[in-house]
Amino acid sequence: MTPMEHIKEDWIILHDGTDGRGLRYECTRCGRVYAPALPLEVEVFVALSKAFTRHHKRCRPSGESRASSEIETRIAAAIESGA
Ligand SMILES: [Zn+2]
Predict the structure, then answer these.
(1) Which of 4, 5, 10, 76 is most enclosed, with most CB atoms within 10 A?
(2) How many CB atoms are located within 10 Å of the residue 57 CB?
C-alpha cells in the first residue's frame, strides 16, 4: 500500500521530492499545495493523502477552490497529534 494508491483524481499530485523541492501534495485545479512535516508514519501519510484528496476532489478546472487552508491545517494538526 502506498499513499498514491489512495489518490484516484488525476489533478491531485503527490510530488515525491525528487525535484529537490520536498515532498508535497498539489491540487492542479486550485493550485493549493500542502507540504507535510517529515518524517511521517506510513499510516499518517495515507491519512493525509485521503484527507487532501477528500478536500480537493470537487475542485473545478476553473481554479475555484472548494478547500480552505484552515481545513487542511486542522486535519494535519489532528493527525499529527494522534487525535
Ligand atoms: Zn483543489
Answers:
(1) 76
(2) 16
pTM of the predicted model, to two decimals?
0.69
Å from CA of 61 to ligand 1 middle: 9
How far, rounded to the nearest angstrom, does the alpha carbon of residue 33 sit from its chain's CA centroid?
A: 7
* Domain spans of the chain, in order of start: 3-80
- pLDDT tens string, the chain, 83 residues long: the values are 566 677 888 999 999 889 898 899 999 999 999 999 888 898 988 888 999 998 899 888 765 555 556 666 666 776 667 65
* Ligand 1 mean position, distance from CA 60 (Å): 8
